[in-house]
Amino acid sequence: EVFNWKRPSVTEKYNWIKRNETTKYSPNADVLEQVNALNISSTAKFGYNESVPVLTVTNADYQSVYFESFEVTEGNQTEFGFRSSGDGGQSMYGLTDEGHSGTNSLLIEKGIELISPVLSVGEDVNSMIVQAWIKGLNDDMEIGLYSDSDELLTTSGWSTETRSGDWALYRAVIPVGDNRKFKMKFRYTGDLEVSDDSLLDDIRIQPLESEMNCFVYDPSTFRLLAAFDDQHFGMYYQYNAEGKLIRK
Fold first, then answer.
1. Half-sphere exposure of 136 (CA within 13 A, CB side)
2. pLDDT in tens, 1-50
3. Which of 46, 100, 132, 226 is close enough to 216 for a disulfide, judged by CB 3.0 to 4.6 Å?
4. Nearest to 69 by CA among 93, 47, 44, 42
5. CA geometry: angle at 121 spanning 120 and 125, to 5°?
6. What is this structure's pTM?
7. At 7, phi and psi to the nearest 5?
8. 222: alpha, beta or left, given left = phi > 0 and alpha = psi -120 to 50?
9. What pLDDT shows up at residue 177?
10. What pLDDT score does 208 carry?
11. What is the pLDDT of residues 114-172, one digit of tens each?
């Protein structure tokens, strides 16, 4: 049966199915969220002044995923709203000029929390997975799940999955229970004093059943520096002085 292009509303829906429906656009008209014919969402988030994609994910809503590489900050928080409880000023507290990817990471200090933006998940989400690369630390890191009003909902530890040089990949799966809207706080809870080179970088938060890829860029040139797959392992890109790609 021919589809009525001039008047699509009169076309019988049982003969035609929408392949994709776009539910969210960026100010630059980039597609941020789509739902396919099976009602599965796919999402993209753009950063660096909304010029390049920093994550793409399937089977997750727009407000349920975050990735932060600490390359771009605005005042006392990052571009996507991550902040440190020790800010107390006009700049992001604990930001260093050493990174797992890119040039920046966050210093881990006792009593200082990294606080995520508020996440919102659908009824089909039972657990969240958190992954990050950490340097110079033991396993005594804790994740707290908090409500909008800062009420503690649950806590979870996370542990080392693997190592690459000085950096270790940490991973945790956190049940969300009946909480559909929450934020996360990350803090060091060990007894040992952490050193000045205990760093956290490339942190991602997503529903357990989703599949996400993340990207890190040079903020001045927008050259791709690293691309992280769904297991949070990175492909790194190196350039010469002329800006030509010389190594992956």
1. 17
2. 788 889 888 877 777 788 899 999 998 899 999 999 999 999 999 999 89
3. 226
4. 47
5. 160
6. 0.89
7. -135, 75
8. left
9. 87
10. 95
11. 999 999 999 999 999 999 999 988 667 788 888 877 888 888 888 888 998 889 999 99
Bridge partners for 42 per DSSP: 34, 58
Which two structure tokens, joined as six digits, stand for 214? Answer: 């993340």
Residue tagged 């993209």 (tokens): 44
Here the tokens at position 68 are: 């932060």
Residue-wise pLDDT for 181-204, tens only, equals 999 999 887 776 666 778 999 999
Helix (H/G/I), strand (E/B), else coil: 8: helix
Show Cβ contacts of residue 97 under 8 Å, excluding neighbours closer than 6 positions. 103, 104
Structural contact between residues 45 and 80, judged by C-beta atoms closer than 8 angstroms: yes
Judged by DSSP in three states, 166 sits in coil
The sign of the torsion formed by the CA atoms of 159, 163, 166, 167 equals negative
Integer-rounded Cα radius of gyration of the chain: 20
d(CA 235, CA 181): 33
Distance in angstroms (rounded) separating the CA atoms of residues 43 and 31: 8
Residue closest to 154 by CA, chosen among 131, 178, 130: 178
Identify the burial level of 73 via C-beta atoms within 10 angstroms of its C-beta, where 0-12 means exposed, 13-18 middle and 19 or more buried.
middle
